[in-house]
Automatic annotation (TrEMBL):
The gene is Nrdc_1. GO terms for molecular function: metal ion binding. The lineage of its organism: Eukaryota, Metazoa, Chordata, Craniata, Vertebrata. It holds the Pfam family Peptidase_M16_M. Residues 1-129 form the Peptidase M16 middle/third domain. It comes from the Eukaryota. InterPro entries: Metalloenz_LuxS/M16, Peptidase_M16, Peptidase_M16_M. Keywords: Metal-binding. This is NRDC protein.
Length: 163
């Protein structure tokens, strides 16, 4: 089991940055779909989670090939690229995801409660409005570059693992 948390103070600076980060993680997951398929067949699992303060990368499975899967994820992260079609598809998916959160009373109530309790939190309404106002491909590219330049890393490797 390998878990790394790539933390960046950049994410919570604005609602736009939170939306750009969600877009970035969604595109990264999309890009990894095909190359990581063989790892899935070999019973290796990975998950990318857009946390509030950074990207959580979780990888688990048999130890002898786990490092190759983790390296694949890091390679795609460091050489991040996307097409305008993928950008458009992911932003449309995020609009639907945000909207679905807003129309469910229990998830909206949780969001409002956390907005009251946590300092510097952006509401789902703020994120949805930012997304509806439109994101540009250039803003995502500059955000990703800034994100990668301001990272702090926490990691945990557990189990029978040799480097």
């Amino acid at each position: 089991y390998v878990r790394f948390h790539l933390i960046s103070p950049l994410i919570q600076q604005s609602a736009e940055n939170v939306v750009l980060f969600d877009t970035f993680v969604s595109i990264l997951s999309h890009n990894l779909g095909e190359p990581a398929y063989e790892a899935d067949v070999a019973q290796l699992e990975y998950k990318l989670v857009a946390g509030e303060h950074g990207l959580v990368i979780r990888v688990k499975g048999f130890n002898h090939k786990l490092s190759l899967l983790f390296q694949l994820i890091i390679d795609y992260l460091s050489d991040f690229s996307f097409t305008p079609a993928v950008f458009e598809m992911i932003t449309e998916q995020l609009k639907k995801t945000y909207f679905n959160i807003l129309i469910k009373s229990e998830t909206l109530a949780k969001d409002v409660r956390l907005l009251i309790l946590e300092h510097g939190r952006w509401s789902m309404i703020d994120k949805y409005q930012t997304l509806m106002n439109g994101l540009s491909i250039e803003s995502l590219s500059s955000f990703v570059k800034a994100f990668k330049s301001q990272l702090f890393v926490e990691g945990l490797v557990q189990g029978n693992f040799a480097s």
